[in-house]
Amino acid sequence: MSTLFLSFVVCAAVVLIISPIVFRVLRRLKTGQNILEYVDNHRFKQGTLSMGGILFLFGGLASCFFFETNKILAILSLVVSFAYGLVGFLDDYLKIRNKHNEGLKPYQKIIGQVGIAVIISIFVYNFGLTGGAMHIPFTDIEVNVSWWIVPICIFFYIAVTNSVNLTDGLDGLAGYTSFIVIISLGLITYLRYLHLVDIGSLASVYLEYRNIAVACFGVGGAVLAFLLFNCYPAAIFMGDTGSLALGGFIASVCAFTGEYILLIVLGIVYVISATSVIIQVAVYKLTHKRVFKMAPIHHHLERCGLFETKIVGIYVFVTIIVALLSIAFYVPV
Questions:
Q1: How many domains does the chain have?
Q2: For residues 331 and 307, is the Cβ–Cβ distance under 8 A?
């Protein structure tokens, strides 16, 4: 457990150490955020630095110092996070260069996301710990879906990365909720590692789980340090660089441990954000009427008069509750 704590502290310290350099570079590049005209209540945030996800992307790398042998899945989790972060970086860069809140074309973005998902999904099926198995949360049941895991995993990556991206709309919202989700996944993975040790599983198996947990705590520490600059009023936004990177990391941890379904519970706020957008778009196309004043739903709540810090507090509270309930199941009695 001390290794997890060290990974957390070191990665958080790295973010704090490199933050002055990153801020200086981003200012020189003039990475100020362009606020969309219809988000008029956020007009005062115009010019806030973006692409802050770079901070926890590099900060999370420090967790590698605490990996032991059999660390390929932990390293891949970070690599996939970087890959999705790169897609987000290109999107953010084009927004800045064009001085408009439009970056990559939707089809370009989805091609990049699907391409990464296809590669990693094939790896999960052929070389991952779980193969075609999906763990049913709060039970000891695993369902083997065989090669169907590949399309399921591809869909999972696209759903998670875009849902986290949609949740990134208020200061600290995606950061705080993702921090809780990542730390929870780290604890759950570590508890599964301890269980595997107790029943005498092969070292090559349980060390992979341990290293994934170390990576979770490292990224979690890096995100928490980033939140010092991203909480209201934000001095920097994570941008698509950060939100897609977080989504890629979370999806990888779940895919490598077979916890696809668990994320529906742990990431309930992501599900709510994505569902609200789907409902809004579908109903508008059919009836030309809007269900929400604005989607995702956190913007609807703003339009209803709730201040953004209160909305973030509600999202954090809900995420903490489902996280505690989820972790409790894995604690040995």
A1: 1
A2: no
- Average of pLDDT values for 267-271? 97
273 domain residue, yes or no: no
48 neighbors 309 (Cβ within 8 angstroms) = no
Question: Is the pTM higher than 0.90?
Answer: yes
Side chain identity at residue 212, one-letter code: I
Two tokens, residue 300: 């609807």
Is 291 part of any domain? Answer: no
| Distance, CA of 210 to CA of 217 (rounded, Å) | 11
**Each residue of 70-116: pLDDT tens digit?**
899 999 999 999 999 999 999 998 888 776 667 788 889 999 999 99
Place of tokens 């994505």: 274
If you average pLDDT over residues 37-62, what whole number do you get?
79
Element (H, E) at 160: helix 149-167
Residue 83 resides in a domain = yes
String of DSSP letters for 169-218: TSTTHHHHHHHHHHHHHHHHHHHHHHHHHHTT--HHHHHHHHHHHHHHHH
| 140 Cβ neighbours under 8 A, 6+ residues apart | none
Domain that holds residue 231: 2-263
Of 226, 253, 235, 270, nearest to 57 by C-alpha is 226
